[in-house]
Amino acid sequence: MKDILFFDTDEDLKRFATNCQIKGVQYVFFDEPFYQVKEQKLKKFSDSEIISVFTHSAYIPNEKLDLFKNLKLIATRSTGFNHIDLDYCKKRKISVCNVPNYGAVTVAEFAFGLLLSLTRKIPKASFDMRHGNVFLPNYTGIDLNGKTIGVIGTGSIGRHIIQLAQGFGMKVIAYDLYQNPSLKKLYASSLNELYQKSDVISLNIPSTPENRHFLNKDAFSKMKKGVYIINTARGDLIDASALYQAIKKGIVGGAGLDVLENEDFLLHDEAETSPNLKNSDFLLTSAINLKLLQCPNVIATPHIAFNTHDAIRRINATTCENIRAFLTNKPINLV
């Protein structure tokens, strides 16, 4: 029997994987993210050929992967794979597969949830209502109808955001290095045009070295005053310090952030264990994140845009099919 190790698991995944019925394998479940599991605990399973990780495994330490001399596949239960060192995997001939397109509708709907919460000040109104401190002028918002949304990235999530925006009567302007012919009329001539015209900007692009700090001081300086920023993609697409300054200056009217750079430092208790605690840039960004969380016009959520029962079922089903296909020498969804 081959061991397949699942990290960062919950009861739904355990139940689904157990019912998946792949012959010749047995599942080992770890509740913790991969990077948090002690090496001594992993050594017992050093012959394992397949491991599965989740996005909460914010990084996959190569030194821990070294423990698995026979490792052949990392099945990430996410679309993004920036938490995995692909160069390392290539050198070791370890295949990596992901779960494409499991949550296009799911994430797009959440993005609009953030946008509506910002523009109609729903969290503040709810909080004040609960505490008997209602003052109607504090909740004056804006209509989305007639406003312009700039959609950066027109993959499956971006396309669903466009559909929702059009349903709200919004004008759409888009940007993508790889344009979709069906959206030809929506593309801006340049990013500068998108920045100048957009009342709302939604980020829907992958985290790559080239996209790091895609929205930076220069980008914010070109935006329409009072623009709303929505990020449900990856935290490092935004320079946190530049965003904070843009909010304080009134360039950005509000931000809905389901992701933050260094978010794991906030989501998990790493005050003593993070390997980046001696990194001054890491510490500065983490401090800026805390300042952003204090801004009344910032809504931050703990990377949950994907998190619906429907999407999780699709993630689990595709992951099991990825593993089954790999074991039958017909791999799918390789990255």
Characterization of this structure:
The chain is of the alpha/beta class and 335 residues long. The strands form two sheets. A six-stranded parallel beta sheet has the order 7-6-8-9-10-11, with helices on both faces. α1 runs parallel beside α13, α5 crosses α7 and α10 runs parallel beside α12. The chain is globular and about 65 Å long. The chain starts with a strand and ends in an 8-residue tail after the last helix.
How would the blueprint of this fold be written?
Blueprint: E1 2-6, H1 11-20, E2 25-29, H2 39-43, E3 50-53, H3 62-65, E4 73-76, H4 86-92, E5 95-97, H5 104-119, H6 122-130, E6 148-152, H7 156-167, E7 171-175, H8 191-197, E8 200-203, H9 217-221, E9 227-231, H10 240-248, E10 252-257, H11 263-267, H12 280-293, E11 298-300, H13 309-327
Parallel strand pairs: 1-2, 1-3, 3-4, 4-5, 6-7, 6-8, 8-9, 9-10, 10-11
Helix pairs in contact: 1-13, 5-7, 10-12
